[in-house]
Amino acid sequence: MKTSKWKIFTNGIFKENPVLILLLGCCSVLAISVTVSGALGMGAALTFVLVCSNIVVSLLRKIIPDKVRIPCFIVVIATFVTLVEMIVHAFLPALYESLGIFLSLIVVNCIVLGRAEMFASKNGVFDSLLDGLGMGIGYTIVIGGIAVIRELVGSGTLLGARIIPEGYQIGIITQTPGGFFMFGAAIALLVWALGKKGKKFDPRIGCDGCCGNCNLGCDNKEDNAKAQAVIAKEAEAK
Amino acid sequence: MRPFSKLLFIAFSMIFTQNYVLVQFIAICPFLGVSQNFDSCIGMSGAVIFVMTLASAVTWAIYTYIMIPLELTYLSTIIFILVIAALVQFVEIFLKKFLPPLYSALGIYLPLITTNCAVLAVTLLNISEGYTFVQSCVDGFSAGVGFGLALVIFCGVRKAVERAKPPKSWQGLPITLMAAALTSMTFMGFTGIADNLFK
């Protein structure tokens, strides 16, 4: 019994890392990973929202009707996001400035909605708590890791302290192209590392649970086929 | 700045210098997900432009005439996401009933838009920038056009990338992200133009 709880917790950190394996919520990873402090703050905020929303969704999973579950999840998530926004605004104004719009955008972050839909709505409260915690930590590790490299190479500092002397930075790493580049490189590294261990991993933007009912026009062929079947059925019904 | 040139400034910066996808990292999921196929790019962009403009107008009115008098401004995130969700549903029903040709073009993309971060972002940014009603509408419209532009450009880039043969571990998404990096680099060229163009 104990091992299965541990498995649920570590699932989000390694096996089903939300960012690198499930490829959810890439927007904030790309945008916030410019400084390490911002990345850690974002990770903490997201972990808090994820744990709380997982608990509440899991508690309400038998009450929420299936048809309106996505709006219900969104309301729960939005409540906690507003809470985090207020706390950060009041106590950490510098972090509030650096996160900007992305703090509010946790509402539509695919990780939170995805976990509510895929895990919390089907499992008990304690399991959902562990899942939220594991996923949040997994997210924080990835965004923090990317941020360490981007801050070090791009601005020559680490948590604000200068490491590489001025004039030796590659500024573009802190800008938009650098974000795409670093994320792509991180995924390629993962594919390479898994390939060495004999495991196959084909990175695609997955759509199960992501973006609520986003099931069309995504990379995943199975999901696409499913969506097309649904559309065909609807057309027949007309 | 004169009112009209302010509008042009907003439109220009939303489409080029502050492009949501390629400069501000908002709405990356649909950008990477939908850009495989040209027709779905056009459909998705059309739906986003339509919903963003409408959402900007509606949330501005709700914020100004309901939330400020009742001092509910701290609830803007919750209220806006609910308004957007309801609006998307309403638009879907309305189009299905009264404008079937438009529905068949945009219909399948509408449900995806509720949780598109760009729509929520544009409504929240309208408020924090303190835009007027007309400015908000222009902002929503041009942010949608910017999204569409990025999507269409990247769709073309991706077609070329698919024909390339990268090293094995770079195949698929990593090389697509690399192409996105190069595409966003081209948009960096616009930096600073808007400020000097509309003085």
Walkthrough of the structure:
The complex is a heterodimer of chains A (238) and B (199). Chain A is built from ten helices and two strands, in the order ααααααααββαα. In chain A, helix 3 packs across helix 4 (69-91). The model of chain A is unreliable at 206-223 (pLDDT under 50). Chain A folds into two domains: 5-202, no CATH class; 207-238. The longest helix of chain A has 31 residues, at 125-155. Chain A is mainly alpha-helical. Chain B has one domain (12-197). Chain B has 199 residues and is mainly alpha-helical. Chain B has ten helices and no strands. Chain B starts with a helix and ends with a helix. In chain B, helix 3 packs antiparallel against helix 8 (133-163) and helix 8 packs across helix 9 (173-188). Classes of the chains: A mainly alpha (238), B mainly alpha (199). Chains A and B meet through helix 2, helix 4 and helix 9 of A and helix 2, helix 4, helix 7 and helix 9 of B.
Kindly summarize this structure in a few lines:
The complex is a heterodimer of chains A (238) and B (199). By secondary structure, chain A is an all-alpha fold.
Q: How many separate helices of chain A? A: 10
Given helix and strand content, the structural type of chain B is mainly alpha
N-to-C SSE string of chain B, H for helix and E for strand:
HHHHHHHHHH
Strand content of chain A: under 5%
Computed CA radius of gyration of chain A, to the nearest angstrom: 19 Å
Q: How far is it from the N-terminal to the C-terminal residue of chain B, by CA?
A: 7 Å
Could you give the count of β-strands of chain B? 0
How far do the termini of chain A sit from each other? Answer: 51 Å
User: Of all protein chain pairs, which has the greatest interface, and how many residues does each chain bring to it?
Assistant: A-B, 56 and 52 residues
Oligomeric nature of the chains? heterodimer
Summed over residues and divided by their number, the pLDDT of chain A gives a mean of 82
Poorly predicted parts of chain B = none
What is the count of structural domains of chain B?
1
Major sheet summary line of chain A: 2 strands, antiparallel
Strand content of chain B: under 5%
Give the number of helices of chain B. 10
Give the helices and strands of chain A as they follow along the chain: HHHHHHHHEEHH
Number of domain modules of chain A: 2
Helix-strand category of chain A: mainly alpha
